[in-house]
Design brief:
Layout lengths: L5 H9 L6 E4 L8 H6 L4 E4 L2 E4 L3 E4 L9 H9 L7 E3 L5 H14 L3 E3 L5 E4 L7 E4 L1 H36 L7 H21 L2
Parallel strand pairs: 1-4, 5-6
Antiparallel strand pairs: 2-3, 7-8
């Protein structure tokens, strides 16, 4: 999805080059850097820097390892002895729910979409017993909140960078009312951030 790892460095150094080709060979989740590039973004932010997308962007859908719903249903129907229970552990939530409903309405197989921290005892019944590890659930929620906060900080940084670019591009005089208001807002934001971090 191009959100982490060495790929971000490769993109930063090659995405702006017209003689480069960026070849995607798998599905890109909405909201990711890869999704933005595949769907025609003209500029993207990588490590806080705005990068022009001048490279040729190509996408080979056939290499994706994900079977579509029809093929997955055909797989379920192909068993001589159908499974008693299916766990859907991969895919976007909306797609999982649609597939679950389709399997359950067209077959006698029960389907579960497990949540993080759930453990199932497979005893041969059609309704496996679920146990929840509360410590794992708490750790997951902490981790999720941590990433939400990091996303909030990244969004704030991008907005501040946009304000900076607007100031650079503007032809405002130092006594212009707009620049005075903006300057006061920036000072308020600095004070607020300093209070949060305890300075």
């Amino acid at each position: 999805m191009c959100d982490v790892g060495r790929i971000k460095h490769h993109l930063k150094h090659n995405l702006w080059k017209e003689n480069s080709t960026i070849l995607f060979v798998g599905y890109q989740v909405p909201g990711t850097l890869g999704y933005s590039i595949v769907n025609g973004a003209k500029k993207v932010k990588i490590f806080g820097e705005e990068i022009a997308v001048n490279a040729r962007v190509e996408y080979i859908e056939g290499y994706s390892g994900h079977a579509d719903q029809e093929w997955l249903l055909n797989f379920v129907y192909s068993f001589t002895n159908p499974p008693k229970h299916i766990f859907l552990v991969h895919g976007e939530e909306e797609s999982q729910i649609a597939l679950k409903e389709k399997i359950e309405t067209t077959s006698e197989t029960k389907v579960t979409i497990p949540s993080f921290g759930e453990t199932y005892i497979l005893d041969g019944s059609t309704s496996p017993k679920c146990e929840i590890d509360e410590d794992e659930e708490i750790e997951y929620r902490k981790l999720a909140r941590k990433y939400e906060m990091l996303d909030d900080i990244e969004n704030l940084i991008e907005k501040m960078e946009d304000i900076g670019e607007n100031i650079k591009d503007s032809k405002l005089e130092t006594d212009d009312k707009d620049i005075i208001v903006l300057s006061n807002r920036i000072k308020e934001l600095q004070e607020h951030i300093n209070k949060i971090i305890g300075e």
